[in-house]
Amino acid sequence: MEPFGKLVYSPETASGEAITKVESHTPRLEAPDSAKANQPFELRVVVGPHPNVVEHSIRRIEVYFYEEGRPFNPIMLAAIPLTPAYTDPDVKLTLKLSKSGTLYAIEYCNLHGLWEGRKQIKVA
After folding, report:
1. How far is CA 10 from the centre of its chain?
2. List of the chain residues with pLDDT < 50
3. Which one, of 1, 25, 31, 32, lies nearest residue 11 by Cα?
């Protein structure tokens, strides 16, 4: 039995057949490298190109924040369910952070499992 964390693929951990899925499944986080404390900024999470049919699609994107200095991490910022054929895995969020840390996006593909992307952000 594996710890849950070992079940999440990333570009660094993908091996075997999963290596061929890195480009189409790893969430890309688009956000500034730095932000002012408690000032809104936009985070965009995109997956793909990826099919969007019932048989093969991204079904969910979750966004977490690992805040530096916080005793218990991560903080779940959003969970976005996606419906095949009607939605694309391209979501935007407005965030306000008070401390630096790392943003994580986890996506679930109904055929290829969970995939992680991340981005560090400095807050001044």
Report:
1. 10
2. none
3. 25
pLDDT value for 120: 98
Query: Cα separation of 58 and 46, whole Å?
Result: 11
Q: What is the pLDDT of residue 14?
A: 95
61: closest CA among 97, 106, 19?
106
CA distance 21 to 112: 8
* pTM of the shown model: 0.96
Q: Are 9 and 21 in contact (CB under 8 A)?
A: yes
| CA separation for the pair 63, 16 (Å, rounded) | 27
Model confidence pLDDT, tens digit, residues 86-105: 999 999 999 999 999 999 99
Length in residues, the chain: 124
The secondary structure element, H or E, covering residue 23 is: helix 22-25
Helices and strands in the chain: count of H runs, count of E runs: 1, 9
- How big is the chain by its Cα radius of gyration, in Å? 15
Contacts of 4 (CB under 8 A, 6+ apart): none
